Backbone:
């Protein structure tokens, strides 16, 4: 290359003080500045030199930087309606979480979990789609999220204090236990145990308490996969600060010794009996009836020492279905007619033992409310995709399910509003959040912000939640 003019050399020396690794090239009588880079090439297995054009120097020494492409738009569009709804529905947690570390991260992770149950590595990008992210600048990188979950999961006492505040109204709890698959080889909580299908899997036990007065989940905890239900309940009671509570057990519960312990502690209980329970009488004579959701239910009540009271309920429609099923087994040769006569005496009959001395209808309605908690577990394992975990740290798993609890509270508050508006069965919670995501906020570089036009379906759903979503 012919020696460049002195003004060009002077300009080059000046650029070297501002930019490292630059070189001068002469191409067809013109002088260009390039930045040198050295990158390792995996295929060639050696370092390879690359260059990037920075600009040009005229013969008189004038440096002209490379022309940058003009950005066509500086406008950003964010999801507004769904995020604003979730933010409003978590207002009750703002005061309760004020003394907990990482409260903003917990809110953001819970909200994104309710909106879209994405993996931890995608939480940051999902959060940045929401308008709320422009008001709360939070680090949701995978490493930081994992650290937050581990830190929160380690705060066992603080967590149960929070659960006590969520259940400050007392009352009865729907209590249930489920199993979550674990794919982590390092997680100590994951142990071989039987799932509901009686298959042995590597699993973690998850206990959930659901308030029968607020219809919201109020507590969640995880345990070793091989632990028995009785032991888990005792641990829950030891930790839980509010003792003015009661439990509504499912039909699979069979530890009646625990019921006596609950009675001594003056903790109420409603426990359904198994079909072959010894407490059930050989013959049933109902003594009254009431109407539940347009269905007539016969009932029987008597004192049952030492547990309290035995309640029996007969649903004629359920009885007919049960007898029809038994007859089908007779037709298949599985049952004899004598077996049929023996089994049909309690067909359609639900037996419940409780320490509560109340109207039979009250006990029945409380027990039937268990359908809500079964739905809660369905939400947790399906809609929120919490039926498996890859986390390898016990504390992180506990923190993770605390986030799941907050996300479930958002879900069931939306469901409660749909029930108030008589929209259950017409609109799902997932549909509400999806349609409200079309209510978008446009933010211009100048700072101007405004809502975009929304479709008719979104307007219809918005009318049911208008008091929850600021539209100013």
Residues:
């Amino acid at each position: 290359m012919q020696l460049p003019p002195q003004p060009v050399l002077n300009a080059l020396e000046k650029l070297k003080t501002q930019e490292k690794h630059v070189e001068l090239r002469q191409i067809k009588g013109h002088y260009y500045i390039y930045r040198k880079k050295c990158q390792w090439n995996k295929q060639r297995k050696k370092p390879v030199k690359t260059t990037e054009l920075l600009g040009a120097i005229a013969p008189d020494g004038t440096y002209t930087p490379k022309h940058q492409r003009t950005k066509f738009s500086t406008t950003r569009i964010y999801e507004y309606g769904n995020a604003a709804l979730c933010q409003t529905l978590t207002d009750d947690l703002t005061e309760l979480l004020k003394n907990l570390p990482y409260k903003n991260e917990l809110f953001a992770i819970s909200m994104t979990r309710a909106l879209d149950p994405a993996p931890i590595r995608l939480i940051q990008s999902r959060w940045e789609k929401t308008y709320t992210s422009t008001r709360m600048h939070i680090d949701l990188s995978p490493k930081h999220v994992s650290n937050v979950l581990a830190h929160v999961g380690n705060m066992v006492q603080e967590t149960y204090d929070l659960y006590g505040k969520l259940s400050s109204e007392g009352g009865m709890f729907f209590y249930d236990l489920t199993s979550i698959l674990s794919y982590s080889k390092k997680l100590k909580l994951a142990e071989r145990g039987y799932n509901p299908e009686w298959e042995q899997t590597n699993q973690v036990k998850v206990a959930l308490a659901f308030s029968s007065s607020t219809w919201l989940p109020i507590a969640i905890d995880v345990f070793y996969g091989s632990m028995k239900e009785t032991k888990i309940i005792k641990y829950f009671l030891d930790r839980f600060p509010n003792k003015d509570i009661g439990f509504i057990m499912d039909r699979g519960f069979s530890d009646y010794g625990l019921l006596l312990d609950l009675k001594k502690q003056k903790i109420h209980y409603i426990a359904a009996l198994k079909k072959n329970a010894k407490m059930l009488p050989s013959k049933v004579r109902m003594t009254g009836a009431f109407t539940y959701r347009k269905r007539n239910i016969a009932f029987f009540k008597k004192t049952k020492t030492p547990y309290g009271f035995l309640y029996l309920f007969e649903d004629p429609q359920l009885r007919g279905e049960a007898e029809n099923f038994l007859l089908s087994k007779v037709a298949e040769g599985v049952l004899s007619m004598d077996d049929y006569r023996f089994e049909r005496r309690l067909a359609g009959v639900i037996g419940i033992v409780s320490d509560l001395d109340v109207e039979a209808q009250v006990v029945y309605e409380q027990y039937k409310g268990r359908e809500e908690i079964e739905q809660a577990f369905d939400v947790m394992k399906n809609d929120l995709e919490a039926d498996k975990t890859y986390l390898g740290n016990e504390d992180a798993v506990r923190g993770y399910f605390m986030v799941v609890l907050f996300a479930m509270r958002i879900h069931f508050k939306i469901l409660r509003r749909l029930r108030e508006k008589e929209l259950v069965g017409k609109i799902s919670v997932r549909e509400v959040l999806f349609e409200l995501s079309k209510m978008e906020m446009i933010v211009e570089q100048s700072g101007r912000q405004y809502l975009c036009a929304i479709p008719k379906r979104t307007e219809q759903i918005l009318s049911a939640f208008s008091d929850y979503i600021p539209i100013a």
User: Anything to note?
Assistant: The chain has a mean pLDDT of 83. Residues 37 and 113 are 41 Å apart (CA to CA). Residues 77-140+412-462 form one domain. The longest strand covers residues 30-41.
